[in-house]
Amino acid sequence: MLDNLQPREKKMLIIFIVVSLIFGPYWWIYRPIRAELEIKQSRLESLKRTMMIESRKLSNRAKLEREHKEMLARLQRSQDYFIRAEEEIDKAIYLNDLSLETGINLISLKPDRLRTDQIYTKIPYRLEIRGDYDSILDYVEGISKVNYLTRINNLNIRSSVIPDEELQVNIELTTFSLDQLEGGVR
After folding, report:
1. Which of 3.30.70.60, 3.90.180.10, 1.10.10.10, 3.40.50.1820 is the CATH number of 82-185?
2. Of 70, 80, 81, 120, whose CB has the highest number of CB atoms within 10 Å?
3. Whole-model pTM above 0.85?
4. What percent of the chain shows pLDDT beyond 90?
């Protein structure tokens, strides 16, 4: 059959075969693989972006966990500054004894409603005292020198028209009781 072809036709046939052998594998083999390769490369880029985002989240989580541990350690170190809930009566007794030591007249001492806020409880007190200026200052200083966290929220001083008469003072203060530490009850 090839014998019947003209030399020019034979050359054309040889060129067609050579071109088919060169570009045929690309057309039938490499081109489908290349399309699949491009799809996999785009998936790989997408996975890399996702992995970068997750890596940032994990690094932030590790940082947050480290900060949480540091805060718990600070809380553990400072828990002595909180009054224990069972010592609430001791606080009232201390305030009464302090009034006797400083020479003021403790008219009323009223514990207010307890308020819980996450891991600690606020124990508020309302006090009404009478005394001279120096005694009241000594009393307030005695309140501030306790070895647990106490905050004076409000201090109202009233005096009468007569200059030698005693001052009347209303004090609102709050002590803090640590209820939980690291998820457990104290």
Report:
1. 3.30.70.60
2. 120
3. no
4. 14
